[in-house]
Prior knowledge:
This protein is mainly beta. It has one domain. Helices cover 7% and strands 48% of the residues. The chain has one helix and nine strands; from the N terminus they run E-E-E-E-E-E-H-E-E-E. It has one helix spanning 53-58; strands at 2-4, 7-11, 19-21, 24-28, 39-43, 48-52, 62-65, 68-74, 79-80. It has a five-stranded mixed sheet with strand order 1-2-5-6-9. The longest helix has 6 residues, at 53-58. It is globular and about 30 Å long. The two termini are 18 Å apart.
Amino acid sequence: MKVINKVYYKKEDDKQILKLAGGSWSINLDKIKGEDVEEIVYITQTKTYSIDYKTAHEKGFIRNFKDEVKLIVPIKYWRVK
């Protein structure tokens, strides 16, 4: 996980594969601050996906669960890069 030029990059690894549940993907965002990020990019072995942080926030995709901040985005809102 890295923030470079206001883009949050998360690369899929064997231990933390992006979870597909109920038509949405979930990413833990505890380590970042919203004002530091304009775009969230998720890199898998086959594709790269992205979503604007502002869009995710406005649509209610960023949620607090207990002590964690999660990004839960329906698949149709991810852009393939």
